[in-house]
Amino acid sequence: MDVLTHNFSLYGKGFLGTVELTVYSSVLALLLGFVMASCRVAPVGSLRVLGTAWVTVLRNTPLTLLFFAVLLGLPRFGLVLPFKVFAVLALGCYTSAFICEVLRSGINTVPKGQGEAARSLGMTFGQTLNHIVLPQAFRSVIPPIGSTLIALAKNSAIAGAFSVTELLGTYKTLNELGYSIIWSFVWIAVGYLIITLSISALFNVMEKRWGVAR
Question: Counting Cβ atoms within 10 Å, is residue 87 exposed (0-12), middle (13-18) or buried (19+)?
């Protein structure tokens, strides 16, 4: 218990760092995932190619390699930003590929007749997607989106290797101070558990309110 009480501020900074990474990256992933899912089901071939390429490349690229590409590669092209921003970009873009596929699977559960009926009423593709298809698809994809964002929270630990303040990285300082590595990791695990259980609780509430009735 001493490792926590004596280093509460250190744990607090790491915990808040992980929360910030999770929140900002989740917002980016949801936005990009929505855009790419729209591209995947768009009637325009070039948009479908773009969405497919985005998902194929990012889902098959190791996240650590993507961190190297973003945090160390982009500055070589003159784009210099705080490492935390680069970490959010890497996490958000990587996770957006999975969000995209989750949303696309939800869109595919909506009967085609609903889209055809909307088009017969003169609605455009964007109107049909936003007002008819996505509201129905969203109800079926709440649980998998929650699981994907929980994975994002745990993946944020990689950012610590690139000088970004986050929870897992606190073990280095604690180890240098001579604290037990086992208890250091126990309290780090508790921190991640709080974050992931909070996300799970949020999506459980959303599922009960808006999810598909069972």
Answer: buried
CA atoms within a 13 Å half-sphere pointing along the CA-CB vector of 205: 5
CA-nearest of 76, 66, 57 to 161 is 66
Handedness of CA 124, 207, 111, 97 (dihedral sign): positive
How far, in Å, CA of 61 to CA of 121, rounded? Answer: 42
Separation CA 103–CA 138 (nearest Å): 7
Q: What are phi and psi of 213, to 5 degrees?
A: -65, 140
Length of the chain: 214
Give pLDDT tens digits for 161-197: 888 888 888 877 777 667 777 877 888 888 999 999 9
pTM flag (> 0.85): yes
Tell me the H-state helices in the chain: 2-5, 8-40, 45-59, 63-67, 83-109, 112-120, 125-128, 134-155, 170-176, 181-210
CA distances 103 to 58, 96, 115, 126, 153, Å, are 16, 10, 16, 15, 19
Residue type, 199: I
